[in-house]
Write a structure and sequence with these properties.
By secondary structure, this protein is an alpha/beta fold. It has 14 helices and 24 strands. The strands form seven sheets. Strands 10-9-8-11-12-23 form a six-stranded mixed sheet, sandwiched between helices. A six-stranded parallel sheet has the order 17-18-14-13-20-21, sandwiched between helices. Strands 1-5-4 form a three-stranded mixed sheet, covered by helices on one side. Helix 1 crosses helix 7, helix 2 crosses helix 6 and helix 4 runs parallel beside helix 5. The radius of gyration is 23 Å and the shape is globular. The chain binds NADP nicotinamide-adenine-dinucleotide phosphate. The site of NADP nicotinamide-adenine-dinucleotide phosphate has 31 residues, from helix 7 and helix 8.
Length: 481
């Protein structure tokens, strides 16, 4: 009998009569769990609890807060395999990918736990005699954290851990398509002894809970990762109340492949970035911009490699590509593939749903490659968030740079080249917040700032030392002695 996962408010597991199902996208007959569907009142209760918990939590010594985060990381580590398997079952990514993500979430908790003993402020010499001046960090208060389904453990971790270590109290609203991974983190914090009200978790429809969250009186800040549509709406609402806000949203990420690239590794990197995690990474490559001199050979090699990808249930050994997260995302992918057919011609591989045998029970889409895609084509301009790659021809490096930057988004970008001068030209001119060189465009670590530019992002960066900038404020002190 699948478990009922309740909301967590003021240190208690809270139920309601309304629930929603979390089903395995690789086999929709499998129920992963049933979740309590939160209501606006739950968000208000969570906000009140978070406000009440704030004075004690924000004045607790940083290393003591860190000790709780370390303990939560240890609890997650003990359940590592179980939590990774649950992630594969709720989101669809392969078991090795899920293990990588859970490991990252644990590392994020340990990294920010350590910040509790550092919490760097500023100390500078005064121009005045016998004046000691410094700035210390203080928390901002109650923070709302809204997360998407595609990294259901890492993204909640990289918002919760820095928020908590800075002394804030939080309300977490996970994505309805994959709430269990975030729930496990909250469970670990509960078991680690986090004081009541410091962490609150309310699952349920974003449309219904979002309004209550952004208008909850005690709220001081919102950190959101998800679509541009919802992010832009949240920004408008939050601005009315002058809430601090951080938005990480969509992308249409390019990989430039120059004729001087290490050919085989460029092919692997593009295929990996386009199709692994079913193309459902915000940093996935959806446009490969290839220099004319190697274009035909590169397209042929990408198609050959793509055809060999093994699609199926991510819990099975050897599977490289899992299902789309849900029916709606699968339908979006298939709709864009049809648009691609009309505008760019027949795909060179893939192009449909996979329904053979057990695949019929899931939301599987073939990894699909379109070539000769032009800048004006829809599949070169709009985010699909699925296993669909558009290959575009560039005359030379300058033309490739122009095509790569000629897009409203600016999340991640990649170049494959062995020419150092061009690589540096690219680094300085690429319009994106995350760049990779001779690596897939996707695959980031937690020790450096994360986030995009242009319409992809708004506000301070996440992760690494930069995360403290969003989750804390400075208090500046001048002291005459
Ligand atoms: P989404 O539909 O925008 O949902 C994101 C979160 O917002 C979910 O928890 C959702 O809840 C909630 N939500 C929905 N309507 C809301 C409202 N009116 N007010 C407040 N919250 C609301 O995005 P998604 O489909 O989960 O994720 C895919 C998108 O995320 C893609 O565009 C991808 O590029 C982006 N993404 C960006 C990054 C990055 O770092 N830039 C990372 C990962 C993903 P429900 O699930 O209940 O609807």
């Amino acid at each position: 009998m699948p478990e009922l996962f309740k909301n967590y408010i003021n240190g208690e597991w809270v139920s309601r009569t309304q629930t929603f199902e979390n089903r395995n996208p690789a086999n929709t007959e499998e129920l992963v769990g049933t979740f309590v569907k939160g209501a606006a009142q739950d968000v208000e209760d969570a906000a009140s609890a978070a406000a009440a918990a704030l004075p004690a939590w924000s004045t607790m010594a940083g290393p003591a807060r860190g000790a709780i985060l370390y303990k939560a990381a240890d609890i997650l580590d003990r359940k590592f395999e179980q939590i990774a398997a649950e992630m594969t079952r709720e989101e669809g990514k392969t078991f090795p990918e899920a293990k990588g993500e859970v490991r990252r979430a644990i590392n994020i908790f340990r990294y920010f736990a350590g910040e509790g003993s550092r919490m760097p402020g500023m100390l500078v010499p005064s121009e005045r005699d016998r004046v000691h001046m410094f700035a210390l960090r203080k928390p901002i208060g109650v923070v709302g954290l809204i997360t998407p389904w595609n990294f259901p453990s890492a993204i909640p971790a990289w918002k919760m851990a820095p928020a908590l270590i800075c002394g804030n109290t939080v309300i977490v609203k996970p994505a309805s398509a994959a709430p269990l991974s975030a729930w496990r983190i909250v469970e670990a914090l509960h078991e680690a002894g986090i004081p009541k009200g410091v962490v609150n978790f309310v699952a349920g429809s974003g449309g219904e809970l979002g309004n209550a969250l952004v208008n909850a009186a005690p709220l001081k800040a919102v950190s959101f990762t998800g679509s541009c549509e919802i992010g832009n709406w949240l920004h408008a609402e939050a601005s009315k109340r002058r809430l601090r806000i951080q938005l990480e949203m969509g992308g249409k990420n390019p990989t430039i492949v120059l004729a001087d690239a290490d050919f085989n590794s460029a092919v692997e990197n593009v295929v990996n970035a386009a199709f692994f995690s079913t193309g459902q990474k915000c940093t996935a490559t959806s446009r490969a911009i290839v220099e004319d001199a190697i274009y035909d050979r590169f397209v042929a090699a990408v198609v050959e490699r793509t055809k060999k990808l093994r699609v199926g249930d991510g819990m099975q050994a050897g599977i490289e590509i899992g299902p789309c997260v849900d029916q709606s995302q699968m339908e979006t992918d298939l709709r864009y593939i049809e648009i691609g057919r009309k505008e760019s011609g027949e795909p060179l591989c893939g192009g449909g749903r996979l329904t053979e045998g057990a695949l019929a029970k899931g939301y599987f889409v073939e990894p699909t490659v379109f070539a000769d895609v032009e800048e004006a084509h829809t599949i070169a301009r709009e985010e699909i968030f699925g296993p669909v790659l558009a290959i575009m021809r560039a005359r030379d490096f300058e033309d490739a740079m122009r095509i790569a930057n000629n897009i409203p988004f600016g999340l991640s970008s990649s170049i494959q080249s062995t020419n150092l001068s061009r690589v540096f030209e690219y680094i300085y001119r690429a319009e994106a917040g995350l760049l990779t060189v001779n690596l897939p465009s996707a695959g980031v670590e937690y020790q450096l700032p994360f986030g995009g530019s242009k319409e992809s992002s708004f506000g301070p960066k996440e992760q690494g030392p930069a995360a403290l900038e969003f989750y804390s404020d400075y208090k500046t002190v001048y002291l005459k002695y």
